[in-house]
Amino acid sequence: MQNSFFDKKLLEESIVSSFKKLHPKAQWGNPVMMITWLGALIVSVVTLTHIVSGVSFGFELQIALWLWFTVLFANFSESLAEGRGKAQAESMRNTRTHSIARLIRNGKEVAVAATELRKGNVVVCESGDVIPGDGEVIDGIATVDESAITGESAPVIRESGGDRSAVTGGTQVISDRISIRITANPGESFLDRMISLVEGASRQKTPNEIALGILLIALTVVFLLAVVTLKFFAAFSAQAANQDLSGVVTITVLIALLICLIPTTIGGLLSAIGISGMDRLIRKNVIAKSGRAVEAAGDIDVLMLDKTGTITLGNRMASEFIPVPGVNEETLAEASQLASLSDETPEGRSVVVLAKHKFSLRAKALGPHSAQFVPFTAQTRMSGVDVKVPEGDRMLRKGAGDAIQKHVESLGGIYPLAAKEIVEGIARKGGTPLVVSEGNRVLGVIYLKDIVKGGIKERFAELRKMGIRTVMVTGDNPLTAAAIAAEAGVDDYIAQATPETKLARIREEQSKGHLVAMTGDGTNDAPALAQADVGVAMNTGTQAAREAGNMVDLDSNPTKLIEIVETGKQLLMTRGALTTFSVANDVAKYFAIIPAMFATLYATQAAQGPLGRLNVMGLHSAQSAILSAVIFNALIIILLVPLALRGVKYSPRGANVILRQNILFYGVGGIIAPFLGIKIIDLVVVALGVVS
């Protein structure tokens, strides 16, 4: 669900939430902003005492207001990020319906409210029924409309006994009848848990966030010591220079200086960055069960992907007609097309399309009396058609090499050596050969190929640039696996994969210090999904798979794993970029403010002292410098909110390249921005006469 930054309702709710978060309990989780909150409170008290005492309070009042604005802007960034997630949660909540369930009790069907269902109950659903709760199909097969959950209008098949048995409450049965065993009590359903996660109620800080928080606290302590000791150094210097700096180094000025120097920019945006990372996945229809999972996706360096449906299209497609000597290709194509007319599988349809594409062959309409179609069976392992034509009957067959060989030899024909060589050659390439015959004569072979998805090789190359190694997982034999792996451009492959081999490979990679991600949808994938650092379960998969993974893809698109890794990388890049910018800001503000504050210290004949020469921006006065820095400090947070929520532009590059970019762009930019911003604000506040 897309939510604009400028959505009126979202902005209004975020503003109200910003004021609610002024409660000290809400600030306690962010030490940097807690210090800012305390500073604003102290300066507010100082302002009140000045008002009561009849002392000039204009400067103190402005500092207090801008410090409160700093806290509010930080609250606003977090509220805006939370608001976007809550809007998605509300959308998900609206999909729930209080339907009537057809409960099987003592062998009889009883109508009860869906809220009365408990784990283990069995219900039946027919065409038009809304599935009353999460469960697994235990009997039957049906098409189900899951658009309320996934947004995808195309119905999906749900059946018992397979990896596509899980159903979600709130979806609707379109056809047929199924029996469902309920797997969750009210309030514990998949949708209930997802809503809770999206709303961020159970969001915990990730290890990187904790580490960064420790760094920010350390920087805050360093600047706190610097500001506290500054009072004593200023007093000593003022005495040595026989000057009075009591009007310059006040409690208000010291607090304002502290707030300007501590990393308030990243401190104010840190929560928003983490929440928006989960939000970006939500808008891609992926539910992350924790912020830790999103962040781990950014650190992944080994990617394990299923071949079928992820790397390949999943359906073998006819790619070539290879005739035996003495038969031309068009004759083979025409016979293959006729033999495939009744074949409704994707492979059969692809044969018809290939013949039409290569030779403009259009299958003639065959009447029921002129043709008898022979369906494929597991026993014969071939299919075809018997056609009655004026020239004589035609017996066309296509199927596995050994099956066609037996068929041809049973009719008194000879299976040519050339056909065997073609079949073996296709197998070595990782393809599937279908031998075609007419009567007792072999015409040639159809080359069926598991088509590698377009652009997938380039995506793997991009991942390689990021330092991510790709591993293809397939049940194919090593020969076929090697051929497809080479065509797809993966770094490694696991052939004839079993649940045990997947799990062993993940543990092996992790023992070497690698972080591993993988996808899965079956119960047999559950151990590997649980073991992987990032386990992405398909929403169409079994309950066991969805419970084992730490992410759920509502679209059930295995290639989404690549996008998830990219989103995790973007989160880390955003946090790194804004941290670099914030630290550079602090350094720049220090060198911008201090010279202006002590410009007159140790001044003799001239109006400026030694430090005044470092006031390269020519700030008007100590008060204007402090006020301008505080205003800049508050405004920069609100200006960076869109970047924190949207994330820095992602591109597949190595860590060294990203670090260099951060230093050059956000580091240098973080130094330049305060000098320009503070100078412009200084000119404005002086022109408006708000400081002396």
Order of strands, main sheet, comes to 9-21-20-19-10-17-18
Considering DSSP H and I runs of 4 or more, what fraction of the residues is helical?
40-55%
Oligomerization state = single chain
Q: How would the global form be characterised? A: elongated
Q: Determine Rg (CA atoms, Å).
A: 35 Å
Q: Please tell me the overall pLDDT.
A: 82
What percentage of the residues does DSSP assign to strands (E)? Answer: 15-25%
- The count of DSSP E runs of length 2 or more, i.e. the number of strands, is 21
Give the class from helix and strand content and strand pairing.
alpha+beta
Spatial separation of the terminal alpha carbons: 51 Å
SS summary, helix count = 22
Low-confidence blocks of residues: none
- Largest beta-sheet details: 7 strands, mixed
Task: Jot down its keywords.
692 residues, six-stranded antiparallel sheet, 22 helices
Give a topology summary.
Layout: H1 8-20, H2 24-27, H3 31-53, H4 58-93, E1 100-105, E2 108-113, E3 122-126, E4 135-145, H5 147-150, E5 156-159, E6 166-167, E7 172-175, E8 177-182, H6 190-198, H7 207-240, H8 251-261, H9 264-282, E9 286-288, H10 291-299, E10 302-306, E11 312-323, H11 329-339, H12 346-359, E12 371-374, E13 382-389, E14 392-399, H13 401-410, H14 417-428, E15 432-438, E16 441-452, H15 456-465, E17 469-473, H16 478-488, E18 492-494, H17 499-511, E19 516-520, H18 526-531, E20 534-538, H19 543-548, E21 551-553, H20 560-597, H21 622-646, H22 655-688
Parallel strand pairs: 10-17, 10-19, 17-18, 19-20, 20-21
Antiparallel strand pairs: 1-2, 3-8, 4-5, 4-6, 4-7, 4-8, 9-21, 11-16, 12-13, 13-14, 14-15, 15-16
Helix pairs in contact: 1-4, 3-4, 3-8, 4-6, 4-9, 4-21, 7-8, 8-21, 9-20, 9-21, 10-20, 11-12, 20-21, 20-22, 21-22
